[in-house]
């Protein structure tokens, strides 16, 4: 973190910030709660809850309809939007409605036994080993396993997803990240082609059969949708689990 003439700047990929961002957030909230950085082609950082909530919900003032800015920096440049996260209402709502049945409360309840079995097997393995890494041995495989159950993705390919997504967001090697992005994209295209030829009871087949404003999704739209669900659906879940487990480890009363 630097401070030049009263202005603060922070590198969100600097190792000390990645290791423990909370002191930096505290300082930013006190001195510069809305910060602009010139790093990574420029970005804004909001650090107060109410500001973040306002930006996330007031789409008329804070648009999401800008392709290619969902990561800082973007490893692979693009001009087509990722669906549905790079759209504003009402179009966002129409695309989002396509996947609502996949993640509905009713469907979660029907899948609860399968998800519970994944959780139990992961915990049993940790108990048998007597130790483990709660991110690598629990949060990541749980996220991948549940995503595969919800979407019908081949579980045998889970190692590939983890590798591709990890490399795609690794700013230390952007060239390799671009390679991983291309490999991930080709994999998704292969899944779409296979389901167009042979539909099944899975997420991609559901999208192929769906319509938005009277038209079926193109391969490009299917690709954009799958990139979000298969990529962000894995990483954000694993990250959220990791943060929750870290909090419980540091707060024994909440853990009890």
Structural features, described:
With 256 residues, this protein is mainly alpha-helical. It is 59% helix and 7% strand. The protein has helices spanning 15-19, 22-31, 49-57, 91-99, 105-129, 135-151, 158-168, 174-197, 203-208, 219-250, 252-255, and strands at 2-4, 7-9, 34-37, 43-46, 211-212, 215-216. It has a two-stranded antiparallel sheet with strand order 1-2. Helix 8 (174-197) packs across helix 10 (219-250). The chain starts with a strand and ends with a helix. The mean pLDDT is 88.
Produce the secondary structure layout.
Blueprint: E1 2-4, E2 7-9, H1 15-19, H2 22-31, E3 34-37, E4 43-46, H3 49-57, H4 91-99, H5 105-129, H6 135-151, H7 158-168, H8 174-197, H9 203-208, E5 211-212, E6 215-216, H10 219-250, H11 252-255
Antiparallel strand pairs: 1-2, 3-4, 5-6
How many separate helices? 11
> Under the CATH scheme, which class of the largest domain?
Mainly Alpha
Strand proportion: 5-15%
Q: How many independent structural domains?
A: 2
| N-to-C CA distance | 36 Å
Total E-strand runs: 6
Write down the Rg. 20 Å
CATH topology of the largest domain: Cytochrome p450
**Structural class of the secondary structure composition?**
mainly alpha
Taking the sheet with the most strands, its summary is: 2 strands, antiparallel
């Amino acid at each position: 973190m630097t401070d030049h003439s009263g202005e603060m700047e922070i590198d969100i990929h600097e190792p000390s910030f990645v290791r423990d961002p909370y002191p930096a957030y505290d300082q930013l909230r006190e001195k510069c709660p809305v910060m602009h950085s010139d790093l990574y082609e420029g970005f804004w950082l909001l650090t107060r809850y109410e500001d973040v909530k306002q930006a996330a919900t007031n789409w008329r003032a804070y648009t999401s309809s800008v392709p290619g800015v969902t990561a800082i920096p973007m490893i692979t440049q693009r001009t087509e939007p990722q669906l549905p996260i790079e759209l504003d209402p009402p179009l966002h709502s129409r695309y989002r409605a396509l996947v609502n049945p996949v993640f509905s409360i009713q469907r979660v309840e029907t899948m609860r036994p399968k998800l519970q079995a994944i959780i139990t097997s992961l915990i049993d393995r940790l108990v048998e080993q007597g130790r483990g890494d709660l991110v690598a041995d629990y949060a990541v495989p749980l996220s991948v396993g549940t995503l595969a159950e919800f979407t019908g993705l081949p579980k045998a390919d889970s190692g590939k997803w983890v590798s591709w997504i990890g490399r795609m967001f690794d700013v230390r090697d952007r060239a390799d990240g671009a390679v991983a992005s291309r490999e991930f994209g080709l994999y998704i295209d292969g899944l779409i082609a296979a389901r167009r030829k042979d539909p099944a009871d899975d997420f991609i087949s559901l999208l192929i059969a769906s319509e938005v404003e009277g038209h079926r999704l193109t391969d490009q739209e299917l690709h954009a949708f799958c990139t979000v669900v298969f990529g962000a659906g894995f990483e954000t879940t694993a990250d959220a689990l990791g943060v929750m487990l870290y909090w419980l480890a540091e707060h024994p009363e909440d853990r009890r």
